[in-house]
What we know:
Order of helices and strands: HEHEEEEHEHEEEEE
Strand order of the largest sheet: 10-9-8-7-11
Number of helices: 4
Structural class: alpha+beta
CATH superfamily of the largest domain: NusG, N-terminal domain
CATH class of the largest domain: Alpha Beta
Distance between the termini: 82 Å
Number of domains: 2
Mean pLDDT: 82
Amino acid sequence: MDNENLELNQSEGQALASEKASEESKRLFIKQEKTDKPYWYVVYTYSGYENKVMTNLLKTVENNGLQDLIYDVKVPMEETIEVKNGKKKHVQRKLFPGYVMVKMLLTDESWYVVRNTRGVTGFVGPGSKPIPLSDMEVRSMGVEDVPVRLDVEVGENVMITSGPLESFIGVVNEVSTERQKVKVTVSMFGRDTQVELDFVQVKRV
């Protein structure tokens, strides 16, 4: 009888442990931070699977009508010139081998779909918790041309943050939100010089 009770207790204990592990797994899954708008996320893939992951994920989105959750999938590429046998050849090269960029509204469903796409090994982030890319990262990685919001007006001072005039202070003469350009007057060698810069090259002071 004691043996039967022991076996029963062990069985109950295993079931309880299994149920607890299942609940823990479920809680971790539900803990994904929801977002109210789509962001770009970076996904780890097996080497050489980047394009397959992109194709399979886009196909899954289309087949299941998930366009309102997963907006875009990209493998950033760049064109380079290779010289072979004395001949120049234009070739496409992956900018970030082993990674795929996914623009999505983060929900349990979108997380599950992306995470379970063949070839995907996880999201970039602490403990595989997806961390969205900032607008600056999205632009610099060539994923998407995200407009820059520059909170400056004509007559205000800005600091130039990149280019030949880096660290110079200038006065804003014109702001073109459509073109993402700003005209700034900078004093150089005792003379005022007007330069046109991208929004990303200046900051308010």
